[in-house]
Amino acid sequence: MTLRLEPNKMVSSPEWVRLSFGADMVLGFSPGKFLKGALNTTINLLQYYPDGCKANCAYCGQAREVAQGPECKTLIRVEWPLRRLDEVLKRIKEREGNPEYGLQRICVGQLAHPRASPDAIEITRRIREYGIELQISELVTATYTFKHHMVEMRKAGADMIDVAIDAASKRVFDQLRGKAVRSIHSWDRYLKAIDEAVEVFGRKNAGIHLIIGLGETEKEAVDIMLYAHSRGAKISLFAFYPEDGTFMENKRPVPLSVFRRMQIARWLIENDLVNESSFKFDEEGRLVDVEVPSDLTLDELAPAFMTSGCPGCNRPYSNERPGGRLKNIPWYPNNKQVISAIKASKLEGLIKRFVN
C-alpha cells in the first residue's frame, strides 16, 4: 500500500527517503546490532517515488517489471524502510560526532526517475541546512543526471559523486541494463557521465560503482577499472548476490576467488602500481597472474580487501549474509585475514610470495 500524507498527496522524495536497513538500525528506527561489533559509518539514503523506478535492470529489486510500483522489496539483499527526511536528519544530527556510531558520510542514492537529480540536490541542500557536517556523496543514474545537475549537487554541499555504471562492459551492460531487458540506460551515456563527474568534482572525488559477477569476464572487469582510473575516477567494488524475484534470482553469487582477484586488481590500479601489461589472463579471460612491485609488503596489500569507494563508507554485510565469508571487509584486516584473502584469490604468484 502506498502511504499518503493527506488525500491526493502521495508520499514522495524529497520529503521522504528510504534508508538501508543498516542505517535504519544506526538511527534507531529498527532494532539490531552488527555482527562482530562492526560500525555502519555511512547513512545510505535512497529516493522514493509513487511510480517507482523507470529502469528495468535485470539484477535489481527496484526494476520496473519486478517492483511494479514504489514498493522496494529489496535492494542489495536488504529492506530499505521508508522514513520522513526531517526525522532522518534529526537523528543523524543527534549522533554526529559520537564515536559510538562513528558516522562519517551520507550517500544520497538516486532512482532512475525524471525527478532524481533535482530531488537529490534538494536533499543535499536540506542536509547542510540542518547543520550536518558529515561528508556527502551523490550516487547518480547517468540517464537522468547531467553535468549541470552535478554542478548544483556540488554547490549544495556534496564532496563526492559516483556513477552507478554497475556492469563492466558494453556487452554486459546492454544485456542487463539496456534494450535487451526493456530498460532505458545507455553505455555511452554512462561513460560520458564519468568524465562529467570528474570534471565537476575533481579527480578521485568522482568514481564508478562496479558489480563483480554479472556475467563479465575478469579481463572486462580489469579493463573498465583501468579505463575509469585513467579518466580520474575511483572505483567502488560490489559483489553480485542474487535478489529474490529479479530476472537473475537463480544466478549464483560471484565466487570468492573471483572477487578477491578483482579486489587485488583494483587496489593495484588505484595505487598506480601496475599497468595493462601487468595482468595475465587465460583464454577465457580469467586473471591468472599479476606482476607486482618487488618491494610490496603484506601490510601494504591489506587495504585491498577492505570496502572500496568513498572515504568513510564501509557497507558492512551488504555483499553476503552475516556469519559468512566477508567479501568487502568493513574494518582494517589483520595479517591472518589478509593471508586468507590472498589464498582465496588462487593467484599462485602472490600465494608463493606472501604465504609459502
From TrEMBL:
Coiled coil: none annotated. PROSITE patterns: RADICAL_SAM. Gene3D superfamilies: Aldolase class I. GO terms for molecular function: catalytic activity; iron-sulfur cluster binding; metal ion binding. Pfam families: Radical_SAM. Keywords: Iron, Iron-sulfur, Metal-binding, S-adenosyl-L-methionine. This is Biotin synthase. It comes from Candidatus Aramenus sulfurataquae.
